Amino acid sequence: MNRLLRPLLALLAALPLAAEPLRVVTLHTVLTEIAREVGGEHVSVTALLQPGMDPHAFEPAPADIRGLKAAGVVLAAGVGLETYLDRLERELDAGRLVRVGDGLPGLIEGACDHAHHGPDHHHDLDPHWWHGLPQMLAAVDSVAREFAARKPAAAADFDRNAAAYRARLEALRAWITAELAALPGERRQLVTAHDAFGYFAHEHGFAVHPLLGASTAAEADARQVARIVRLIQRRGIRTVFAEKSVNPRMIEAIVRDTGARLGPPLYADGLGTGDAATYEGMMRHNVSAIVAGLR
Ligand SMILES: [Zn+2]
Fold first, then answer.
1. pTM for the whole thing?
2. How many domains does the chain have?
3. Alpha carbon of 27 to ligand 1 centroid (Å)
4. Which of 45, 56, 156, 191 has the largest count of CB atoms under 10 Å?
5. What spacing in Å lies between the alpha carbon of 127 and ligand 1's midpoint?
6. How much distance in Å is there from the Cα of 57 to the middle of ligand 1?
């Protein structure tokens, strides 16, 4: 650190203003956890998205806008998940909105269905980056950098908190890899309600067969359903998975048509309640359900 900057920062830290927590508003449940873990006592976190809410369908209410305008930093998942972000950004002071996902390494395109779209169709990037541990670890560092830029006096604490949280995520990653070792490559077939598990699939060698695209807003058409039914029969896929925030009607129809089992709902779009109230709990729930269903 610059020699002149250090005493200046020490002076700033002594001022009452610097002692106030950084006001953080989060637009995704996973970012709420990252912000609290990294920020610790130096931040106050307001979560606009509560567990179980569908981030594809969420829109901030007028009362939310007031809180967003007062925030020191607003953390969004980005990569197109929040369809209202461009409008929101115009309401906020410059530099307040951070699209955490946009700067992550290894972003991937959504699952491609050439039979449906034709070979020249280009897909948007998949916004569900938190299902990949490499992306999750990078997001933790990104949030620590954003916090440090806005509250330099606490930068060392943000670094330390981020390192401790990353160590837990690395342990989770080792647990996931060990659990998935029970599934041979040909069993790694994930039929789900919407295209949310691309990062998980990419990391662990699964093929994903979603009924819907990357958003929960669309309806699957009969052709797509028929295609997945054939695929389940051809590959002998034993279990298909509903999701917490998607109507299970279509996936239940597939179960009737194929005789595959219906697995426990997976958490696709963010944290839940109970055993899935934390990121580690959510991932353990999903991985346990996938291993039990497909082995
Ligand atoms: Zn989704």
1. 0.90
2. 2
3. 14
4. 191
5. 8
6. 10
DSSP states of 181-207: TTS-GGG-EEEESSS--HHHHHHHT-E
Q: Are residues 155 and 196 in the same domain?
A: no
Residue 181 confidence (pLDDT) above 80: yes
Q: Round the average pLDDT of the chain to a whole number and report it.
A: 91
Judgement on whether residues 289 and 216 belong to the same structural domain of the protein:
yes
Q: What is the pLDDT of residues 243-253, one digit of tens each?
A: 887 888 888 88
Ligand 1 mean position, distance from CA 216 (Å): 6
Asked if residue 157 and residue 44 are part of one domain, the reply reads yes
Q: How far is the CA of 121 from the centre of ligand 1 (A)?
A: 20
Give residues with Cβ within 8 angstroms of 248, minimum separation 6: 193, 242, 262, 265
Residue with tokens 């990357």: 214
- Domain membership of residue 254 as a residue range: 173-294
What are the tens digits of pLDDT across the range 193-247?
Answer: 899 999 999 999 999 999 888 788 777 778 888 999 999 999 999 999 988 878 8
CATH of the domain at 255: 3.40.50.1980
Distances (CA, A) of 274 to 34, 89, 219, 271: 18, 33, 29, 10
> Measured in angstroms, how far is the CA atom of residue 193 from the centroid of ligand 1?
9
